[in-house]
Amino acid sequence: MRLLHTSDWHLGRPFHRVGMLGAQAEFIGHLVTTARERDVDAVVVSGDVYDRAVPPLAAVELFDDALHRLAALGVPTVMISGNHDSARRLGVGAGLMERAGIHLRTEPSACGTPVLLSDAHGDVAFYGLPYLEPALVRDEFAVEKAGHEAVLAAAMDRVRADLAGRAPGTRSVVLAHAFVTGGEPSDSERDITVGGVAAVPAGVFDGVDYAALGHLHGCQTITERVRYSGSPLPYSFSEAAHRKTMWLVDLAADGAVTAERVDCPVPRALARIRGTLEDLLADPALVRHEEAWVEATLTDPVRPADPMARLAERFPHTLSLAFDPARTTDDPDVSYARRLAGRDDRRIAEDFVTHVRGTGPDAHERAVLRDAFDAVRADDSVREAAR
């Protein structure tokens, strides 16, 4: 069986101040064309269809168009909700859509109920694991500790239990939206940290033939059977080095996996340039970036006059301008930035306690801080789900 694995469409999301709806529509067309020309048997979409719980109308219309085109193609589509989606909204009409071959899986309680598709070698069971916010699904999965690994492991236990009751030789595919250990994040994914831990081990997916992952925006191979497709379009300059693709996965009769990357159309290259303003305007090596979307970081010791206007004369698609003036190592701003570099919110809060009090928080105080940050995240998730 041949699968086309994609995720993280983020319909409705702009790139800085540039609208991306046209590029997103071009991607949908490319997806449909690829499914038709490469004889795809099923399309899998591993979450974050939309960028917001309440997406703009134009994004909803584009999603509707995508569903109609996939249904008309006659290629079954299985998709799950991600942490950016409203699972309830995305799941509206799922029963009716299923009759057209569009299988939406947005309910955690249905993790162990697969979509069954068949080829010449028998059945393939597709299990949809929507994004599982630990604080919201801990009761559903009866876990003592509300963490990503615990709830995802419980969901996978249901998958393996169902699979064990099926005919020998039934192959299996899991769709999941999670941060798996070994994955490389970018700046454009929303933080899903709970209890200071966001990542789950790849071994949680043991027992299935292929895990089609979403959430991280870079296309990545965690293991031969566990892969991220990445987002089809860039949504931050941290993705400048990404090659935007989908996975074309062939699942053999014995469950063996072979995979090929299929490039996605990208509207414009990304470039991150750094230096003094005069150097950036004069450097002949930067000619290749003159038509790219540009993030410029100026290192001038004194902020130059009209830097954006001057940059735009050479780089007309400059979207982001930052200043990082060269300073001596004893400059207080340098030392402060170094102290913060690579630290999450909880660690910064702990360091603030140390700075104010002279001693760091004890184990109980660290737990209070951790629970406070988790509570804020859980409240945000509840509000998103209720919108």
UniProtKB/TrEMBL annotation:
Residues 267-355 form the Nuclease SbcCD subunit D C-terminal domain. The keyword Hydrolase applies. The keyword Chaperone does not apply. Heterodimer of SbcC and SbcD. SbcCD cleaves DNA hairpin structures. These structures can inhibit DNA replication and are intermediates in certain DNA recombination reactions. The complex acts as a 3'->5' double strand exonuclease that can open hairpins. It also has a 5' single-strand endonuclease activity. Belongs to the SbcD family. GO terms for molecular function: 3'-5' exonuclease activity; endonuclease activity. Keywords: DNA recombination, DNA replication, Endonuclease, Exonuclease, Hydrolase, Nuclease. Residues 1-218 form the Calcineurin-like phosphoesterase domain. This is Nuclease SbcCD subunit D. GO terms for biological process: DNA recombination; DNA replication. SUPFAM superfamilies: Metallo-dependent phosphatases. It comes from the Bacteria.
